[in-house]
Design goal:
Number of domains: 3
Radius of gyration: 24 Å
CATH architecture of the largest domain: 3-Layer(aba) Sandwich
CATH class of the largest domain: Alpha Beta
Helix content: 25-40%
CATH superfamily of the largest domain: Periplasmic binding protein-like II
Shape: elongated
Structural class: alpha/beta
Largest sheet: 5 strands, mixed
Order of helices and strands: HHHEEHEHEHEEEHEHEHEHEEH
CATH topology of the largest domain: D-Maltodextrin-Binding Protein, domain 2
Strand content: 15-25%
Distance between the termini: 51 Å
Strand order of the largest sheet: 4-3-5-12-6
Length: 299
């Protein structure tokens, strides 16, 4: 099918519905009434001879052709959007653009207080929207312009031919336990470390973290009594139990002022971690993206 045989406006209807899986939400995004949206969807279905979406439990689920089209249409619309806005003047002091991030609770904690303090002074009208990070590097959402940036946590920069990155913090780990822990009166040796039960922080449900990997090198395996997705919630469990937790030192140092916890040096070598900013190369020329990268360098 040639492009002149189809109304390209129908592709924006398709893209919005694929992302939202809701006619009302998709119609709101592109400023159409639900009736006009449904009429446009019907036209596209007739043109392509496929339902494209089927309502299941009140959710518009894509057909096989729908998934196939989305993999091509989403990136194409993203490139068109970038082309139309490439020369848009960006002035931080007056701009009212929205920048959307995907981030875990810890990456939010590490960056947003400093970043927002700067933005309130330098770019008071800019809006930041932070969405939960569903996986380490959601490339599809970066390509489709659903998000502008990912705040990533890793022990090395995630490499990709289509993703640019910037490391903005490097930190070490420590181990924490409640104060007056009966088994830590003589400190934290490796034997004591292995004899205690642990909390494992796993933002995306991984069954192994960096501590487990380092122990495996030594032929050891710890007992994990509790696995949590949240870095910030975990120390509060430690403070009221005999569990121990190995976590970023930045969090432990901050919470030690308000929680009854002790901080120990881990009895095994654990590589430092990095906090990285990721964005798609399609957006690398945007002045707003270059500005944010420069702000992180300053901070």
């Amino acid at each position: 099918m040639n492009l002149h045989q189809i109304d390209l406006n129908l592709l924006t209807i398709f893209d919005a519905l694929y992302r939202h899986r809701s006619v009302s939400a998709a119609a709101d995004e592109i400023c159409l009434s639900q009736s006009a949206f449904s009429h446009g969807l019907s036209r596209l279905r007739n043109r392509l001879s496929d339902d494209l979406f089927v309502r299941i439990n009140n959710v518009m689920q894509p057909t096989s052709l729908g998934h196939q089209l989305a993999s091509e249409i989403g990136p194409a619309l993203g490139q068109i959007h970038n082309g139309l806005n490439a020369n848009r003047v960006f002035e931080p002091s007056t701009s009212d653009i929205e920048l959307t991030f995907a981030a875990t609770d810890y990456t939010q904690f590490s960056l947003l207080p400093k970043l927002m303090a700067h933005i309130r002074q330098a770019a008071p009208k800019i809006q930041l929207t932070v969405l939960p990070s569903e996986n380490k590097l959601p490339q599809e959402k970066l390509i489709n312009n659903e998000i502008d940036f990912v705040l990533g946590f890793s022990h090395e920069v995630e490499t990709s031919s289509t993703i640019k990155s910037q490391t903005w913090l490097t930190d070490s780990y420590c181990t924490i336990a409640r104060k007056n822990h009966p088994q830590l009166r003589k400190g934290l040796s490796l034997d004591t470390f292995m004899g205690l039960s642990h909390i494992r922080i796993s933002p995306w449900g991984e069954k192994q973290g960096v501590v487990d990997q380092q122990l495996r090198i030594k032929g050891l395996k710890r007992h994990v009594a509790l696995q949590l997705p949240s870095v910030l919630a975990s120390p509060y469990v430690v403070a009221t139990s005999d569990l121990i937790l190995t976590l970023p030192r930045l969090v432990a140092s901050h919470l030690a002022h308000s929680l009854d916890i002790e901080i120990y040096k881990p009895p095994l070598a654990i590589p430092n971690y990095q906090l990285n900013l990721y964005w798609h190369k399609l957006n690398a020329s945007k002045t707003s993206h270059r500005w944010l990268s420069q702000v992180l360098e300053q901070l």
